[in-house]
Every structure is written in C-alpha cells, then in structure tokens.
C-alpha cells in the first residue's frame, strides 16, 4: 500500500480511537443521536463512524440511525418493483417498421385476378411478399412510462438502506476530507477496509476537491449527491458510504412520508396545514 | 523360452476347444453426419484423445463453435450513474418530477398510450411541424386504427 512510504499526519482531529495514545491527545468520539422522534417500541440501530483521513481510522465514533429508515422489514418484492420501475419508466423504444401502406409502391394490382395461373394478389407490398410491409411489427417510438405510488418508492429506499446496513455494507463517515487526491489512495483504502468491488459515496451538496478528483479516475467508485440516491444504484454498488449530513438528510426526507396526509393537489404547491414538506436547500 | 512357447500353445488349444470366436469386430462409430469421414484405424500420435467421437476419422470434420460473447464494460459513466436522480421528487422537495428527466420525443415524455393514442397525441402536439408525406401517413394510420379498434374484434 502506498501510505506505508508517506508520513501522514493526523490533522486537527487527532488519532483514531483504536490506536494507542502515544500520539497527540485523542479528541472526544463523534457521537450522533437521532434527532427525529423514535417510537418507544423501537430503538435506534447503531453504526461506527469512520473517517477517510487514514486507512486505519475506522473507529472515530458511533452514530445512531433511525429504525424506521434503517431497520424496516426487508421487503424484497418492493426492491424488485422499484428497481424494475427505474429501468423501465424512462424507456422509449424507437423500433419502427413500415406497414404495407408506408412501403414505397404497391398501389397497382400486379396481375389480373383470374387467368394467369398464379396466386391472386392485390399489391406487391403486402406482408406476404418479399420486400413488403410488416403486419404487426413495432410501431413508432413507444414509451413504457408508469409511476409507482410515492410511498412505494420511499419504502424501496428504506428497504435498500436497511439491507445495506444489515449486510455490513453500509459505512458512515464524518466528512469526505481526504489527505490526497490520488485515486490510488482511495482504491487502497477501499481494499484495506474490505469494502468490496464497487463503492457508492453519498454526501449532501458540496464535495471536497480531493475526493472529486480521486473519483474521476476510478470506474467503480461513484460519488453522488444525496438527491441522487436510488435503489438501482444501491443494488449496483456493493458498498454504500454515507456522511453524517447525508444520514440526517435522508432520515428527515424519508420519515416525513410516514406522517403526511394524502395529497389533494401536488406537493409542489404550498400547503397551509401540513408539516412543511422539506424544501431543497 | 520353451515354457513360454508351451503356455501359448496351451492357450491356443484351450481357445479352440472352448470355441471362442475371433475378437468381435469393432462396432461402427455412431456419428450421425460426418459427411463421408468414416471410421478408419486410428493413427498413433493424433492430437485428439481416443475417447472423443473425432478419434480415428480419416478426414477431420470442421467443427463450428458458438460465437463468443463480446466483452461488455459494466462500469461506463452511463451504466455507473444509471438511475441517479430518479428520486429527485421525493428527496428534493417535489419541485422536479422524475418524468421531467426523460429524454425523448416531446409527445412521449412522461406519458404512455397504445398506438392509436400515440398517433393522435403526436398529431396534436407535433402535427403542424411534420413533413407533408409523414403527416399524410399519420392520418391514414389514425383512420385505420380507429376502424380497427372500434369496429372489429370483441371490444367495440
């Protein structure tokens, strides 16, 4: 690994919890509580908070995750429905063949009805003929658009996040700050921590330059804003890395749907009495 | 030496007495269509193992393999970022709907219909921009599909 030959400093955060205290005094651990109310029957699930500053920095603190987002029933049928929807709703197939009316020619009867000894035909472009039109072929640009109910799409996201957490493929990171913008550093870090073949990194809004430069050069590590989170990408990438801000954002947006009324008009227009649907920042 | 010769003689007489016939002729190789390259005594040193159906043929049969699959890169930019922003409505305050992200013909964005509905919608939205011949063909198609759907078959 490349870091063995460099002398990396810990920076202002101090050394991770797991190492000995011979270095500068360790800061207090990063603890994150659930800001939104949790039902008294459930308790939050927990995940380690890691950091990208050093490959061994995996025990920087503990984050509590809301159980109604990260510990729902694992509905695989909902996952399948949402992933299929994502594949198909934007599909527009441009396959088109000409019918007998559209093929050039074929207006005249090729030979008389009776007497020639050949089969009777009305045009040389009927579907029976070579070079004729196709009777029941694909016709024109076809769209396969449909929408799943909003609650189903939200539940799909919750189930996907739950599955990632329960299969040890979810990692929470405090920030995305990296010591270097070398793609190999990120690749070695992912390999050292056994993250898997593909990593999806999610943050809210702005990314530090180092990580965007590092991800430019890598194929199977993807960096997306929290707005872009979706079930298909979660299933395509093996590991998910969320920042604490992204966790708060997702919890707030996904839990709002449990307590809202049905829309009488689209939510894009203002409501007076509902808890305000969270606006984009 | 003499003992070996004596054993052989003894075995030959034994076989003759028991009436064992000569070694059975080898069964015909069951190759359905080898296009004339029938079985012949195998020459030693051939690359094909003797157990395969190709062994011992006088002329090598041309074997066609199924075409190899071309390698597909699963991590291009398009494939890695497929599906991103599909939940921009839910996660983003409902200002954008995912149907606004669909790239395609104007009359098909965020809408679905059967062929007659698509033709009518295309005529309504884009009809005055179309070429004359295409507009004419579109009208013919609408007329044909209307009669087909509403006057023939079980559902009318």
Automatic annotation (TrEMBL), chain A:
The Gene Ontology terms for molecular function here are:
structural constituent of ribosome
InterPro entries from the xrefs?
A: Ribosomal_uL4 (IPR002136), Ribosomal_uL4-like (IPR013005), Ribosomal_uL4_dom_sf (IPR023574)
User: Where in the cell?
Assistant: Mitochondrion
Query: Any one Gene Ontology biological process term?
Result: translation
Report residue spans for region: Disordered: 1-23, 100-122
Q: What start and end residues bound the annotated signal peptide? A: none
Keywords in alphabetical order: Mitochondrion, Ribonucleoprotein, Ribosomal protein
* GO CC annotation, single: mitochondrial inner membrane
For whether the record's keyword set contains Ribosomal protein, the answer is yes
HAMAP family reported for this sequence: Ribosomal_uL4_B (MF_01328_B)
What PANTHER family does the database record attribute to this sequence? Answer: 50S RIBOSOMAL PROTEIN L4, LARGE RIBOSOMAL SUBUNIT PROTEIN UL4M
The UniProt entry's sequence similarity note says: Belongs to the universal ribosomal protein uL4 family.
The name of this protein is Large ribosomal subunit protein uL4m
| Name of the coding gene | MRPL4
Automatic annotation (TrEMBL), chain B:
Keywords annotated in UniProt: Mitochondrion, Ribonucleoprotein, Ribosomal protein, Transit peptide
Q: Which GO terms describe its biological process?
A: translation
Q: What is its main location?
A: mitochondrion
Q: Does the keyword Aminoacyl-tRNA synthetase apply?
A: no
Cellular component terms per the entry's GO annotation = mitochondrial large ribosomal subunit
Cellular location of this protein?
A: Mitochondrion
Kindly give the InterPro entries that the UniProt entry links to this protein: Ribosomal_mL51
One Pfam family matching this protein = MRP-L51
Q: Which GO molecular function terms does the record list?
A: structural constituent of ribosome
What the record says about family reads:
Belongs to the mitochondrion-specific ribosomal protein mL51 family.
**Protein name as catalogued:** Large ribosomal subunit protein mL51
Q: Organism, per UniProt?
A: Catharus ustulatus
* Name of the encoding gene: MRPL51
């Amino acid at each position: 690994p490349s870091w063995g030959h460099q002398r990396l400093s810990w920076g202002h955060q101090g050394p991770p919890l797991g190492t000995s205290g011979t270095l500068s005094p360790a800061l207090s651990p990063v603890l994150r509580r659930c800001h939104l109310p949790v039902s008294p029957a459930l308790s939050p699930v927990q995940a380690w908070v890691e950091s990208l500053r050093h490959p061994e920095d995996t025990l920087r603190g503990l984050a509590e995750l809301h159980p109604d987002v990260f510990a729902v029933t694992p509905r695989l049928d909902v996952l399948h429905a949402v992933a299929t929807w994502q594949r198909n709703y934007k599909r527009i197939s441009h396959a088109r063949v000409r019918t007998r009316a559209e093929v050039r020619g074929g207006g005249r009867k090729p030979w008389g009805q009776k007497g020639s000894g050949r089969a009777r035909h009305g045009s040389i472009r009927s579907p029976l003929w070579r070079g004729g039109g196709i009777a029941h072929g694909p016709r024109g640009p076809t769209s396969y658009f449909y929408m799943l109910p909003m609650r189903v799409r939200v539940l799909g996201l919750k189930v996907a996040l739950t599955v990632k957490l329960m299969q040890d493929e979810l990692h929470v990171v405090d920030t995305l700050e990296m010591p270097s913008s070398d793609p190999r550093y990120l690749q070695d870090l992912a390999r050292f921590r056994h993250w898997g073949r593909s990593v999806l990194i999610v943050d809210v809004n702005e990314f530090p330059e180092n990580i965007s430069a590092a991800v430019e050069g890598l194929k199977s590590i993807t960096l997306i804003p929290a707005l872009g989170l979706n079930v298909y990408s979660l299933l395509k990438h093996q590991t998910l890395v969320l920042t604490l801000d992204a966790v708060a954002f997702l919890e707030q947006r996904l839990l709002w749907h449990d307590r809202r009324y049905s829309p009488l008009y689209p939510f894009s227009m203002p409501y007076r009495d509902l808890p305000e649907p969270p606006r984009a920042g | 030496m003499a003992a070996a010769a004596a054993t052989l003689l003894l075995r030959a007489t034994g076989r003759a007495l028991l009436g064992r016939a000569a070694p059975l002729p080898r069964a015909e190789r069951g190759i359905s269509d080898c296009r004339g390259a029938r079985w012949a005594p195998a020459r030693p040193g051939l690359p094909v193992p003797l157990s395969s159906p190709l062994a011992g043929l006088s002329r090598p049969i041309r074997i066609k393999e199924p075409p190899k699959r071309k390698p597909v890169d699963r991590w291009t930019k398009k494939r890695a970022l497929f599906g991103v922003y599909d939940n921009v409505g839910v996660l983003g305050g409902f200002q954008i709907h995912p149907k606004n992200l669909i790239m395609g013909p104007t009359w098909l964005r965020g809408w679905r219909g059967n062929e007659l509905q698509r033709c009518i919608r295309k005529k309504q939205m884009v009809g005055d921009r179309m070429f004359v011949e295409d507009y004419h063909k579109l009208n013919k198609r609408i007329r044909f599909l209307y009669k087909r759907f509403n006057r023939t078959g079980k559902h009318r």
